[in-house]
Amino acid sequence: MLIINKIIEIETNEGINIHNITPQVEAIISSSEIKNGHILVFSRHTTTALAINEDESRLLEDVKVFLQNLAPSSDKYLHNDLHLRGDIPPDEPMNAHSHLMAMMLSSSEVIPIVDGKLALGTYQSVLFFELDGARKRTVFCQISGISEQ
Question: SUPFAM superfamilies, alphabetically (predicted)?
């Protein structure tokens, strides 16, 4: 069995934004020699998330509204009492709402690879959620599998 590790870098915007990273994940698979196995896609940040769903603009706007209603940035959160927290960087944002949204989603997805391709359904895409932004983010990908059928 082969194991290959790769990183996807994403420049995000302010607030909630959703990026379809399916092409980057597919490129990692096609550049590998793995034909059958799986890929772990893992978000390396506490205010980002991953999901497999449809990349349809109106649905993605619905998701943003849903998440904002779930954890409004205007609510009072203990995590945002920055003066009561020790050892924080000077540019620390008040982002408790972003952490809460991320916990309601997922930090990783595992997707089967069959014949060198993602085994996603017709309308499925790998979506990366920026819930805080704007930042440079990284997604860790680990492919495990075999090169022959």
Answer: YjbQ-like
